[in-house]
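Sequence in, structure out. Go.
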Amino acid sequence: MRTPLCDEFGIDYPIFAFTPSEHVAAAVSRAGGLGVLGCVRFNDPDELEKTLTWLDDNTDGKPYGVDVVMPMKIPTEGTSTDLASYIPEEHRKFVDETLLKLGVPPLPEGEGREGVLGWLHSVARSHVDIALAHRPVLIANALGSPPVDVIEKAHEHGVKVAALAGAAKHALSHVANGVDIIVAQGYEAGGHTGEIASMVLTPDIVDAVGPGVPVLGAGGIGSGRQVAASLALGAAGVWTGSIWLGTEEYRNLASNKGWETAFLRATSSDTVRTRIYTGKPARLLKTKWTEAWAEEGAPTPLPMPLQNLLVADAHNRINASGDPDVISMPVGQIVGRMNEVRPVADVMASLVAEFEEAVAHLNKVNG
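Output:
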């Protein structure tokens, strides 16, 4: 499974793992891949500083990366309180009535938090500054190219920059801006994703950017066979995400047992691509919460970051309730293969073993 990216990043396998859990990220890096910590959940810079220090100390000297979110459109500055004035009252009313209808209880007195400020451009920039004071080898932006000055700043620190793309034209734009690695994220993926499936998208982007720019295949990758398929399409490695939700280490972050029940029973058809999570199209697990937003009379989701600010407290309440029928959970179509909870090291070992079996099968067919 070794590709040039392994030597470039000092990893054993070209498996990049996005996760909001530092425990998962560290375990992936220790197992030979590249764990990439999602920073969007960090409102408090001190908390991110503490978490990255923990990663520095718990990866056995192995490399890791960070993932930030830099939305470029309205409104991108200010606090959640300032931005609250942009949220229509009809949207607030719909959320409150839907939570009541679904039987989601309020949080205990004094609990809860403001919207996730990591969706704001200014906060994402602070995440980059904090990260560069540590030792990541990669900074990825979930919403395409970061601003050119951010890319240049990362390069000054010897850090590579990756950007997600859902179409070849987006990949070409990223490369023109100075991005080093393109993540070709297919329609099957969890979270923010485009409209083209991985089987078509990966070779489109590989051919568009040419051999000088590494491409990571993403979307629908949860087995070694799928890793082999992505490399066969021209990718230099894979970007994975959903499969790490089903690991023992993820339990250190997820306080809601409803998540495990929800994904363990789901099939590959139990997801939906919708704007209700952040304001941009993202794939979520299909639940009563997503269905409520699709009903006649439901308001149109707001643009990022207003939609996230609108539903942040609702998500806190939903998560705390532990009801798998209501959960708001970004996950890809690979959820249908997430049938058990395993340690990260076991998942990595399976990816490698299944990849070798797939290659051996192809050699036999070719033989």
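Check: The chain is about 40% helix and 15% strand. Residues 344-366 form the longest helix (23 residues).
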